[in-house]
Write a structure and sequence with these properties.
With 275 residues, the chain is of the alpha+beta class. The protein is 43% helix and 17% strand. The protein is elongated, with a radius of gyration of 54 Å.
Length: 275
């Protein structure tokens, strides 16, 4: 890349520019890093600064505090790989306004972006990704006058298989998966125990109706028991008088009792044999 092209790009957007010197980048240290940055081939270095005047006069960097104007200082050092250099405008020995920062990583010089550039870059990348996602989704959208908008993933086999698997899972998994069998049984047992200890109050009207129903049921059971007992007595009496009844006696529980009829006639007399 030519020096003219580098200068043109650095003027438009210096964040896209990097610089290095292969002769000195392997031997950088806090003592020579400022000389490395202030080389004339560095596009980030302004020759009209106070550092250039000091270099021409062969003075030390400590004289920068006594001068007014543009200057470069070593701001941060993290040996052996990171160096941060600040460009600032000095108004007095105690007053200097920062302009921009530059960092050197492994001998490569870059300009540090400011907060506005970082936010703009993040917003631009977010909007770009969202636009690509909407464009991708719009390719699978279909419209029908009767059905409305639907999705058609037949052109994308992976999405089609995924949608079919999801539909099949929704159709087949209708059971409650909110907990395990042990958890559900445990909860049911606790609810039953609480219901037994603290039964819900019964309204007075409902309590009277329950008492009336229980009384009517008990009376009906007593009548059925008496009727069954009378039938049993009648059958017993008829069998004792020698009359055979075709119907078998029935107990109060409704169980049929089978009885075996015994003939009570005396055996025939034996006759003596005649010689």
């Amino acid at each position: 890349m030519s020096a003219l092209m580098v200068k043109t790009i650095s003027q438009e957007n210096p964040l896209w520019v990097s610089w290095h010197d292969t002769q000195m980048m392997a031997s950088l240290n806090p003592q020579n890093v400022m000389d490395y940055f202030c080389r004339k081939s560095n596009p980030f270095y302004d020759r009209m600064c106070n550092n250039e005047n000091i270099r021409m006069q062969r003075l030390g960097l400590e004289n920068l505090n006594n001068m007014v104007g543009l200057e470069y200082i070593l701001l941060h050092v993290h040996e052996p790989i990171l160096y941060v250099i600040r460009k600032q405008h000095r108004h007095s020995p105690t007053d200097a306004i920062p302009i921009s920062d530059y960092y050197i990583i492994g001998g490569m010089v870059y300009k540090a972006p400011d907060l506005a550039n970082v936010i703009n870059s993040r917003i631009l990348s977010t909007v770009t990704n969202l636009q690509l996602a909407f464009e991708e989704a719009s390719n699978y959208s279909r419209y029908h006058p009767n059905k409305g908008y639907t999705w058609d993933f037949t052109s994308n086999k992976a999405l089609s298989d995924k949608s079919k698997a999801a539909a099949k899972k929704d159709a087949t998994s209708n059971k409650d998966e909110s907990g395990t069998v042990f958890q559900m049984q445990r909860v049911d047992m606790l609810l039953a125990e609480l219901l037994r200890k603290f039964p819900p109050p019964v309204p007075p009207n409902l309590h009277q109706q329950q008492l009336q129903q229980s009384g009517s049921q008990s009376n009906a059971n007593v009548q059925d028991h008496n009727a069954a007992a009378s039938d049993l007595n009648a059958n017993t009496a008829s069998s004792s008088n020698g009359t055979t009844s075709e119907a078998s006696p029935v107990t109060a529980l409704g169980v049929e009792i089978k009885q075996e009829m015994i003939d009570m006639k005396p055996p025939p007399e034996k006759r003596a044999k005649q010689n």
